[in-house]
User: Which sequence fits this backbone?
């Protein structure tokens, strides 16, 4: 079997503070294969967002971050790459979608200008006309009907849903092999969020892009992920195929998560009243879905 | 307060600021004990020791009539500090009250008060104080009046902007629903939330009041001789550059040190209290 | 761009109201102050008749509003009255001295932008490092002394100790340049005299830098703090996730959006130089408005004081309008909302 698109092995992260080291990730392992959609689920502060930032190499520039573990991208060990080669992957082979689409776009440039900057990563020196052509095409792919108007607009002139589509189009424009989606569209209302996620999912499938969904939203995970990793306080506590994991949760934390009554707004992770010792029970992997078995 | 002070002493920059300000304040307060020649603050003439380069016991040298510059600088600090305190003690309450009223009451009151503020703000700061000083007699009191008149609008503008955004906050709406009086809402609800910004600005301004006051007296529009004043010392000495360099350099550095000290603390306060510029 | 014209018209309108307010204020201050302006102007030895004549000429015996009415009527005709100090129309006095001051202020303003912005950007890009601390320290020093202190220090070091620059004046006496605009840097070029231009430029460096120092400090500090704040915005992380070059992110994603709030205040600091120029001119014997302004103030020359303050305020307001227009040009949010309304 070919190498997985992304393989994380025993990843540890700690931050240096004046009160000493604060450990955030205690050694997590996960992988995603080509075209696979994998979810990383957990509460806020569980360490899921930092994981994506480590993969991209964004956290590494923080002086206080201490990172250990092995990251492999398409069979290449990321830490062995030169700075330049590693930087070269960003925005070309891997890209990311953020929580709040509107504030993730530069307010002083039009969408068109920013689109060209993104395209320029894969094709340095791309002409304005070529970039525009490609951007129009990419926007049409995310079902934007007036791509020309959108390209000439600023983010604050467009709706959140529209900006989310723009972000998806940008993220997929360079045909990346890995898409990191960090709480995509959480800032949007529920129906718009579902719509744009469906779009993203379809497109990723079309492009054979591997997707790492980072979410606290069980509904979204259930609908869009093939496999799920549950993360709790910097440890993966359970992993398995989506259906099995939801129907038959093994780990006490996952069970508590699924059992808790969701709030009216729906979708969000329910408040879990108390932490019990059970939550720190060892990783529960569903049959045939441990890292070892999957990567064999 | 204690915590703030603790943080201030931890950061090397603000620690330097604290030390500088402490030096300035202590030397002003205990001028009578520190100054080697306390009588030199007035109209003393010593033609034996005039225009001397720095040498013991005149560590900063002497001026053209033989007075010890070091003693005069210390007494000038005393006057600068009093001036700073008086100016801010009047300008801040006035400016803050007008800003609160304009920002909270709105309507015609807001329009009139803010246009009035604009009028004061559209005369270049120094020019307003200068022309006031020109028309008044150049005394310390009038200097304070002139600087106060140019200073209050800045607090009005600061508090006005804060009050306008605080007005929309839940706690203000809640107080309105309960039926609290406008005065209560302005001074008991909104004002406490503006305090960090006001305090930070005051700390920075203390230095700038000293700076502006010295500028006025530099132009001959401030405190008159023989009262010691840093600005007029520089003006007097500038005529004798470069030979009698100490006449300008030491008073000039004295201004720099005092203002720099207050600015360092103000800067650190801004970070601690999380105040925007 | 009709939207910008509309904005300009609106700002000019409010500025006019404010300017009328300024004239009322300064006029009121001048008239309310104790003492007989006519007696002060003519000195202690003036005869009663002379004083009465001057009081009559200045309409001092009439009500405040009538006096202000006369003043406004004259003002509309471009007449600011006669200076009691020079015995010439205030407008021609100002016209004679203003260009030198403006030239100094403009060059200082250019220095403020040329040094202040890059320092601020550098500081923000290296926030938290030694470079940042050093720049913050130096720029804070810059704002911590009035222009005349810097003027004296710069003169002592770079004109006396190291004789790199001239000690005083606008241009060496050996050059005679026919005045056209009053701006020597322009007039020397118009006269085709490159050596004179170089000489004038050489003369303006120290005074302009002394005047600019606090502005440089303010601009750098402001740019830094607004930029550091912008570095926390989600679009910065987005730009980093796409692997844009650090320099590019600094320039297009951190600096440019942060420039909008910075620019307004930089404009204010620039305009404040009009007042601070007085301090620097005094040290470098720069033949601008300073000597005239201080002289008329000391002599309580009412017309000249009111006229000078009014012109200064008008310039101050003009600078602010220009800055507002610049801000709306770089800020699409304002530009587009103008178009929509």
Assistant:
């Amino acid at each position: 079997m070919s190498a997985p698109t992304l393989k994380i092995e025993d990843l540890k992260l700690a931050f240096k503070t004046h009160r000493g080291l604060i450990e955030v990730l205690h050694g997590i392992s996960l992988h995603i294969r080509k075209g696979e959609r994998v979810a990383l689920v957990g509460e806020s502060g569980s360490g899921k967002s930092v994981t994506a930032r480590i993969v991209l190499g964004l956290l590494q520039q923080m002086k206080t971050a201490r990172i250990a573990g092995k990251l492999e991208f398409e069979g290449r060990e990321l830490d062995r790459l030169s700075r330049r080669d590693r930087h070269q992957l960003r925005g070309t082979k891997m890209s990311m979608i953020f929580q709040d689409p509107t504030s993730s776009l530069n307010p002083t440039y039009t969408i068109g200008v920013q689109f060209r900057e993104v395209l320029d990563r894969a094709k340095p020196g791309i002409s304005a006309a070529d970039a525009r052509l490609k951007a129009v095409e990419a926007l049409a792919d995310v079902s934007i009907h007036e791509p020309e108007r959108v390209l000439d607009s600023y983010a604050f002139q467009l709706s959140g849903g529209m900006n989310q589509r723009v972000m998806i189009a940008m993220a997929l424009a360079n045909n990346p092999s890995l898409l990191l989606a960090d709480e995509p569209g959480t800032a949007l209302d529920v129906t718009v969020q579902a719509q744009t996620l469906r779009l993203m999912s379809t497109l990723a499938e079309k492009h054979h892009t591997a997707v790492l969904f980072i979410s606290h939203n069980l509904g979204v995970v259930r609908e869009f992920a093939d496999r799920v990793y549950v993360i709790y306080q910097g440890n993966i506590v359970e992993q398995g195929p989506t259906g099995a994991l939801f129907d038959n949760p093994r780990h006490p934390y996952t069970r508590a998560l699924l059992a808790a009554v969701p709030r009216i707004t729906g979708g969000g992770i329910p408040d879990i009243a108390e932490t019990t010792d059970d939550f720190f029970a060892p990783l529960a992997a569903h049959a045939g879905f441990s890292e070892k078995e999957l990567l064999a | 307060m204690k915590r703030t002070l603790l943080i201030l002493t931890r950061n090397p920059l603000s620690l330097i600021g604290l030390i500088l300000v402490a030096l300035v304040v202590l030397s002003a307060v205990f001028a009578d004990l520190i100054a080697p020649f306390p009588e030199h603050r007035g109209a003393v003439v010593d033609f034996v020791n005039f225009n001397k380069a720095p040498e013991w016991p005149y560590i900063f040298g002497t001026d053209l009539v033989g007075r010890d510059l070091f003693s005069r600088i210390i007494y000038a600090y005393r006057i600068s500090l009093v001036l700073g305190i008086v100016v801010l003690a009047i300008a801040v309450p006035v400016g803050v009250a007008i800003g609160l009223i304009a920002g909270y009451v709105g309507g015609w009151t807001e329009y009139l008060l803010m246009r009035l503020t604009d009028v004061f703000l559209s005369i270049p700061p120094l020019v307003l104080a200068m022309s006031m000083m020109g028309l008044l007699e150049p005394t310390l009191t009038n200097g304070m009046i002139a600087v106060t008149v140019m200073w209050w609008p800045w607090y009005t503008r600061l508090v006005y902007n804060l009050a306008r955004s605080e007005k929309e906050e839940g706690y203000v709406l809640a107080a309105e629903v309960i039926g609290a009086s406008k005065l209560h809402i302005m001074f008991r609800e909104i004002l406490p939330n503006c305090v960090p910004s006001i305090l930070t600005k005051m700390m920075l301004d203390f230095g700038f009041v000293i700076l502006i006051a010295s500028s006025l007296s530099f132009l001959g529009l401030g405190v008159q001789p023989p009262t010691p004043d840093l600005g007029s010392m520089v003006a007097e000495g500038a005529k004798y550059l470069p030979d009698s360099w100490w006449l300008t350099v030491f008073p000039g550095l004295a201004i720099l040190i005092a203002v720099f000290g207050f600015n360092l603390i103000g800067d650190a306060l801004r970070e601690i209290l999380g105040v925007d510029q | 761009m009709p939207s910008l014209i509309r904005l300009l018209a609106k700002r000019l309108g409010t500025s006019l109201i404010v300017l009328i307010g300024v004239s009322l204020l300064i006029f009121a201050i001048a008239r309310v102050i104790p003492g007989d302006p006519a007696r002060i102007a003519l000195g202690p030895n003036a005869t009663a008749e002379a004083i009465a004549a001057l009081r009559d000429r200045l309409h001092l015996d009439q009500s405040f509003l009538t006096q202000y009415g006369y003043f406004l009527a004259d003002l509309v005709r471009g007449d600011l009255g006669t200076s009691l100090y020079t015995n010439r129309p205030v407008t021609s006095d100002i016209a004679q001295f203003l260009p030198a001051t403006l030239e100094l202020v403009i060059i200082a303003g250019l220095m403020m932008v040329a040094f202040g912005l890059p320092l601020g950007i550098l500081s923000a890009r290296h926030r938290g490092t030694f470079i940042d601390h050093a720049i913050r320290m130096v720029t804070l020093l810059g704002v911590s002394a009035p222009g005349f202190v810097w003027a004296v220090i710069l003169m002592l070091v770079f004109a006396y100790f190291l004789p790199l620059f001239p000690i005083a004046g606008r241009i060496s006496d050996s050059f005679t340049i026919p005045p056209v605009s009053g701006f020597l840097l322009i007039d020397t070029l118009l006269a085709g005299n490159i050596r004179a231009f170089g000489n004038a430029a050489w003369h303006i460096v120290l005074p302009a830098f002394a005047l600019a120092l606090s502005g440089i400090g303010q601009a750098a500090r402001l740019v830094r703090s607004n930029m550091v704040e912008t570095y926390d915005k989600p679009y910065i992380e987005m730009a980093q996730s796409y692997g844009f070059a650090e320099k590019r992110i600094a320039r297009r994603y951190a600096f440019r959006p942060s420039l909008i709030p910075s620019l307004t205040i930089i404009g204010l600091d620039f305009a404040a130089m009009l007042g601070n120029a007085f301090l620097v001119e005094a040290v470098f014997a720069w033949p601008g408005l300073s000597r005239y302004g201080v002289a008329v103030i000391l002599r309580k020359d009412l017309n000249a004081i009111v006229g000078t303050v009014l012109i200064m305020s008008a310039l101050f307001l003009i600078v602010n309008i220009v800055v507002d227009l610049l801000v709306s040009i770089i800020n699409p949010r304002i530009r587009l909302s103008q178009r929509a309304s």
